[in-house]
Each structure stands twice: as structure tokens, then as C-alpha cells.
Amino acid sequence: MNSKKNRHRNEDVRNTDRVPDSEADDTSDSGISRRGFLGFAVASIFLAQADQPQSESRNGIPYRTLGRTREKVSLVGLGGYHLGKQADPQESIRIIRTGLDEGINFLDNCWDYNGGESEIRMGNALRDGYRQKAFLMSKIDGRTKAAAASQINESLRRLQTERIDLLQFHEVIRDTDPDRIFAEGGGMEAVLEAQKAGKVRFIGFTGHKSPDLHLKMLATASKHAFTFDAVQMPLNVMDAHFNSFEKKVLPVLLKNDLGVLGMKPMGDHIILESKTATPVECLHYAMNLPTSVVITGCDTLPILQQALQAARSFQAMSSSQVAALLAKTSKAAEAGRFELYKTSHRFDGTYANPQWLG
């Protein structure tokens, strides 16, 4: 792990514990006037209206279309990481099954979450007919064909399923990640073989570090004549102000009809520490964007019920409502103080464990 090769990989990770000078221009986003907030709010609502109408709901939970896949997914999705942090495995199973019974169908997970415990618990929860209720997503870290293939098979075994509905490359946070994934002998070869074998339906990628890296990943895919089905990224009241995925990446995804997976609506709870927005305001802001699904971590049944209620009570926000919320969060959002996944290595699992990349 301390080899020269691994040290080199660590150095490739975009953003260190300080904010790079190259991102200085983005910090000015947080200093725009109320007129600017209103203009941005109008633009956000215009993007939201570009999404298909929410004509379908299940048990009061709105459903949206997952981009070019045409699959219908619940407006709120159940994050997998927090399920593995819950002290009682049986409680994790109750949370998952309650969510599915209440109308959620989108389940998020990852090969590396909690040493595989998150996938193991989800696999147990999906027994007894619950697998049929779920649109199941998981992620892998492997950048090489061998590492990716091994992780896919391990995820299938843990999740106790023959097929993952959406498999994503996790943590595209380095400049080198896109080229490594699409290289000869790279991870994409394993994923495409798994798709051909029926182990995977759709393919996407995730990242929380930089919108520019998302754009590079999309451009690299295009160069290799490949189109992703979905893309996952932070979309929240702080992101709108600083190095914004909403501003830079979201319009590109909509233009190309790719599924939009919003994550970290509360910044893994850190945004709540700013005291500028409530949990429901955070969820509603993300839902107001043309996201296919807003993924949120739920490690207790009360937190799950909060997410369910937020989805059931969601109504499109007016431009003045969006502007007011952006105004409240503007000062706190400066320099990414509450978006540590962008400005530090705190959320970079593959930085701490580069061997996962292969």
C-alpha cells in the first residue's frame, strides 16, 4: 500500500485538503446578488420543467424516468452506505424492506461499503420476493479488467442476485480515472462482458470531487463511442454555489438524456451543521432539480420516514422559493466548507485504499 506505485495514484486524486487555486473562479459563485440568485433559480426551474412530468406514483412516492433507460425509479432512493453503519443488521433489513413496501424502488450500494457489509445486508433484505420490488444499483472500484470482474462477481454473490440493474464505476476522482477505465485491459472491458452475460443491465459512473472530471469522463466515453446510461453526483443547496455539478454537469446529462442520480442532498449531514437549511429543505431542493432520483442515507426508521414524507409532500418550488433558499446558504457555501467531499480526502475511499483500483 505504501509502494511507489500506490503513492503515485494517491497524488493523482483531484483536490487535496486545501482548495486548489485553479478553483478560485468557482468560489465567486457564492457572492452573486439576490438578482443573481433569482436568475439561477429560474434557470433551475427551467431545467426541472425539461424533465418528464411526474405522472406516476406508487404509494404516494413520485416516480421519474431514468434517462435513456426508460426505467421508472422512485424520486427518493435508499443509500447503501449508512445501512452498513447501523449497529443491528436486522434493523438494516427492516429499513430496506419498509422502504420497498412504502414505495421506494431505487436501492444504492457499493462493493466497498463497510467492507462489504452493506451489500450483504441488502442481499439478505432482498430475499422472500423483495428483489422483484427493487431497481438495484451497486458500484465497483476496479480500474483494471481483472479487478472489475472480481468485484462484480463478489457484489452479485453478496447481493444474492443474478443481475445488477445499474452498475457504476465508483469515485471518478482522479484525472487518470477515465483513461484507465477505458484503456485496453481496463475496467470497462469487464463491465461490458458482464452486461453481455446478463449480469448487468445498465452502466454508469459516480464521483463527488469535481464536475470537470465528470465532463472528462463523459468526453472519454464519447471518444470510445460509448454512452453511459446514468451519472451520479452531489446535488444540494451548497453545490449550487461552489464548483457546481448542477451548473456544469447537469445540463450536459439532460441534453444527452442520461439518468441523473443526485446524492449527498445533506452533504452526509455536514450541510445540516451550517444551520442554514432543514433536512426537508435539503431534500426538496434536490428533488426540485431534474434528478431521476435523490439518494439519501437512512440508518434508522425515523430517518427513512422523513425521506418518505419529503417525497410525498414534494411540490415544485417557485423561483422565489429557490432564490430564498440559495440566499440562506450562500455565505456558508463559500470555499466548500460544508462540502468536504470536494475539498478534502475525507470521503475518498479509494485514496485510503488504492489497492481497490487494481
Textual characterization of the structure:
- It is a single chain.
- The protein has 358 residues and is of the alpha/beta class.
- The protein is 43% helix and 14% strand.
- It is built from 17 helices and 11 strands.
- It has helices at residues 4-11, 24-27, 34-50, 81-85, 89-102, 117-125, 145-159, 177-182, 187-196, 211-223, 245-248, 250-255, 279-288, 301-313, 319-329, 340-343, 349-352, and strands at 56-58, 61-65, 72-74, 76-79, 106-107, 135-140, 164-169, 200-206, 230-234, 259-263, 293-297.
- The radius of gyration is 19 Å and the shape is globular.
- The protein starts with a helix and ends in a 6-residue tail after the last helix.
Report the radius of gyration as a whole number of Å.
19 Å
**Proportion of residues in helical segments:** 40-55%
- The termini sit apart by 12 Å
**What is the 3D shape?**
globular
Strands in their spatial order, largest beta sheet: 4-11-10-9-8-7-6-5
Number of strands: 11
Given the helix and strand composition, which structural class is it? alpha/beta
Mean pLDDT: 89
The profile of the biggest β sheet is: 8 strands, parallel
How much of the polypeptide forms β-strand, as a percent range? 5-15%
Number of DSSP helices?
17
Low-confidence stretches: 1-12, 14-32, 49-53
Order of helices and strands: HHHEEEEHHEHEHEHHEHEHHEHEHHHH
